[in-house]
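Usage example:
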Amino acid sequence: MEASTTTKGEATSNKVLVRANEIEKTYGSSFPFTRSVTVLTDADLEIRTGEIVGIVGANGSGKSTLMNILVGVLEQDSGTVERTGTVGWCPQEPLLYDRLTVGETFRLFGSGYGMTAEEIDEAKHRLASKLDFEQYLDYRIDQLSGGNRQKINLSIALMHDPDILMLDEPYTGFDWETYLTFWDLAEELAADGTAVTMISHLIEEQSRLDRIYEVRDGQVYDVTDQEGETDATASERGEETDE
Amino acid sequence: MSRTTTAFTIGIKEQARNYVLVALLVVLPVSFITLAFAVTQDVEMPVRTLVDGETVTVMRGMPEVHGVIMTPITSALIAGLAGLFLMREAKDTDGRLAVAGYRARQVITARFGVLAAITLIVTGVSVGVMLVDFQPEHLWWFVAAMLVVSVTYGLIGMLVGAVFDRLAGMWLMLILPMLDIGLFQDPLFIQSEPEWWMKLLPGYWPVRVMVDTGLTTDVDTTLSLVWATGYLLLVAVLTIGVYYRITQEK
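Running the assembly step on the lines above writes:
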């Protein structure tokens, strides 16, 4: 995995684009007699240009919480996050406006990214062609299947060629062809210097990742060079592991 | 086109496709206001209001009084539900707009613009339906108070949407205008000085203006309209604060 960064590293300066230090997060409740849940304690992480980084961990370990904090949609209780460059975020559940068409969705988010109408149109057709949703451009989001919604969800994260791409299980609902296309796309972006970070559950994907962080017991461990599987992948198969 | 304009125009399109809202806009004014005039017994009733700066009791036809009350209930109810829907739908997704580069003030301006547009339409339709059966003595004062109470309830709907889920929020926004305007401010029910807590409700000041300017020939409630506007501004500041917290990038 270290070797796979060679070409990507040559394409860029291997600069740190996201740095998280001593992140802590506890979910509280404003209602009495309800418990608060500590998710992250002292979590550190770095994401560099041209890397494909996987964040793994057991269910409920805090992967999505960590990503939401890195993206900036969730506030940490303490610690710092530094981001350099533009961010594209593909949340686990498609966060889209149900009654807008696909085209309107591109226009709305493209405007936020500061793209011109021509750039938005070009990105829309390029991604529609690549991910095979050209025939649905005039459909409303709530008229799309789960898989096609996820394609739009991913495309919105990609449309402005971000420096940092944050993907929370981006392939949920994809058919096999689209899944493979997604990985081609991710590798192309990383080769161009984009820092691609994704939450991953699939063991076979780990060979595609340049760096693997495991979220465990509220902390983040770099398990890239560990032989075999992580605790998280084992526990997802129902095996007992030593902490 | 600026981000705010894009978000506003697309937001209007999105709400125009909200068939529940459109259906409410068509069905509620006719079923609430027209039926109120049609089924209310035509007898004279005592109404407490201001005349020449003094609180006095005047006799007015029950259909007129009932109509005057049902019109703001209808408008407040629809505006409140619109505010609720707007906040519920936007709560999560507007945070993604912030990641995409929208400033919180741009999103807030666009969303409040959509709510203002809906409220204008709702108020216009409600007053238009009322005018078929009843002409207020001072139409534009009446409309001003209608707008204030509708926008206030629209913003309260947004606040409710920030805290409660859709079902709980819907119940609240159905019940609140009914209790406030339809019971605690209704001169047919409240024949004496209202309790102090009734004066804290969003409908108190605007309904005073509507009863006065709808049913008497003089305008004695200028100050009440100022208080109503102040109440609206207070709710607006609170809503902007909540929305800002939701949409700003952390």
